[in-house]
Amino acid sequence: MTRYNGKLALMYSDKFRSYIGRIELWVLEDAAKHEWSNTIFSLPRLACLKTMFQVYCATDDDDAGEFIVAPETLGAPPFYVLYYDPKKNSLRRVDIEGITETKLEYWDNDLDRRTISIFPSQVENLMFL
């Protein structure tokens, strides 16, 4: 669950179709009437990256309406996420610095612990007050 254009939304990426880049978006248009709209977005450019991707959330802070798409597994650095803009049908890549270890004990040994969490509005300040 996420927000999209200020409304409650559900983003879905079929695990078997995420390689070719398919995102399904359900938006609650009228809560009282239980009316939902449905849109399917195709991201064919993901197929050339030879990586399985998962859709995590939509950015809604600045009304850009972009989707955050990330690889399902950690590969060789740099780790990255993709921002998909459905209005422009464009992708942009953002490298994430600071993840240097690709050999992670729990990650590598237990498939049930392979979880990536992405929070687009998270800002971390390491300065002590």
Question: What's the helix and strand layout?
Answer:
Layout: E1 2-4, E2 7-12, E3 22-30, E4 35-42, E5 53-58, E6 67-71, E7 79-85, E8 90-96, H1 105-109
Antiparallel strand pairs: 1-2, 2-3, 3-4, 5-6, 6-7, 7-8
How would you characterize the overall build of this protein?
- The protein has one domain.
- The longest helix is centred in the C-terminal third of the chain and has 5 residues.
- The relative contact order is 0.16.
- The radius of gyration is 16 Å and the shape is globular.
- The protein has a 4-stranded antiparallel sheet, with no helix packed on it. It has a 4-stranded antiparallel sheet with strand order 5-6-7-8, with no helix packed on it.
- With 129 residues, it is mostly beta strands.
- The chain has 1 helix and 8 strands.
- It starts with a strand and ends in a 20-residue tail after the last helix.
Summary tags:
four-stranded antiparallel sheet, 8 strands, F-box-assoc_interact_dom, globular, mainly beta, F-box associated beta-propeller type 3 domain-containing protein, F-box-assoc_dom_typ3, 40% strand, 129 residues
Would you summarize the structure shown here?
It contains 1 helix and 8 strands. It has 129 residues and is mainly beta. This is F-box associated beta-propeller type 3 domain-containing protein.
Distance between the terminal alpha carbons, to the nearest Å? 34 Å
Specify the structural class: mainly beta
Number of domains: 1
On the 0-100 scale, what is the average pLDDT? 73
Q: Compute the number of helices.
A: 1
Strands of the widest sheet, in order across it, are 1-2-3-4
Q: What can be said about the biggest beta sheet?
A: 4 strands, antiparallel
What's the helical proportion of residues? Answer: under 10%
Unreliable sequence segments: none
Along the chain, the helix and strand elements come as EEEEEEEEH
Number-wise, the strands total: 8
Q: Beta-strand level of the residues, as a percent range?
A: 35-45%
Rg, nearest Å: 16 Å
